[in-house]
Amino acid sequence: MQDVTDLPFMAVIANCGAPDYFVTEYFRVHSQSRLEKHILEAVTENRTGRPVFAQMIGEDIHHLVRSAKDLQEHPIAGVDLNMGCPSPTVYKKQCGGGLLRDPQKVDQVLGALREAVPGLFTVKMRIGFSDTENFETILDLVNKHQVDLLSLHGRTVKEMYRSEVHYDFIKRAAERISCPLLANGDITSAAKARQVLDYTGAAGVMVGRHAIRNPWIFQQIRDDQAGLPISEIPLYQVNRYIKELYEAVSKPHAPEQAQVNKMKKYLNFVGQGVDPEGKFLYEMRRAKSKTQLFDICDRHMPEDGDGTFAPEPYQGVIARPNCES
């Protein structure tokens, strides 16, 4: 997730129960691009003990190949191509989800990168741009170029995060492609992961936004798959996570208000599981200082409290105004 899955965030998540592997923020690839230092640190300075895939986004074949070769000079688990980003500033440049409009270009890009990456080459994509007309064609290109792993988000690019996830398309993809498939889109809990895996036949799940809300989700999924009970998370433990995350992502010498505002980006998701009325979210969004923010956390999630974190987002408690739940 761009501007989220940096090295400090990975370290905090790992303390709660790391995923099987991490994917970096995407490296923007164009004629003037170089590997961004702060993203590369998530590979070179990573102490989580988990493999890290380096994600690229772009459309210029020559420079994608150049960047892929540069990335292989570092201890990456593999190279990942983003063909799913729904940001208009991205897809208008024919990058990310914009590539799904042009299967011929996808064919060329996948072919060039497969040749340039002797190790693991993975792709993440959506089921289409504004419709699913090219869906099966692009799946066949994934097979043609022997992609090692496909992560499929079950919405079109234009649907962003607002529609229901079309898990039937993920099921169709699992039946059509020869490589392992990860199901992505509204994997809100271990129970939801089990439901999606049972229905789609996917090899696994990729969790994005809901790992911000619940960083224990990966361990909960593993426990559920092993037939173990899913542990409840006390609210005071969520409070500790928030404070650890605040310190981890804070930049030296940055203004406190900027740090607080950055933290609100994460808490917009965390707050979906704190209380069913959304009172924590309401108060948190109005905090002006670190002290105010932490006081709000302590009131809603006291150290001596016995409340538990909701395993699913509370109905009607929205992560961001006018945005996805």
TrEMBL record:
**Coiled-coil region:** none
Domain spans labelled DUS-like FMN-binding: 1-290
Task: Cite the entry's keywords alphabetically.
Answer: Flavoprotein, FMN, Nucleotide-binding, Oxidoreductase, tRNA processing
Matching entries from SUPFAM superfamilies are given as: FMN-linked oxidoreductases
One Gene Ontology molecular-function label: RNA binding
Q: Which residues bind FMN?
A: Q55, K124, H153, G208, R209
Q: What is its EC number?
A: 1.3.1.-
Q: Where is the active site?
A: C85
Q: Domain of life, per the record?
A: Bacteria
Checking InterPro entries in the record gives: Aldolase_TIM, DUS-like_FMN-bd, DUS_fam
Q: What does this protein do?
A: Catalyzes the synthesis of 5,6-dihydrouridine (D), a modified base found in the D-loop of most tRNAs, via the reduction of the C5-C6 double bond in target uridines.
Record protein name field: tRNA-dihydrouridine synthase
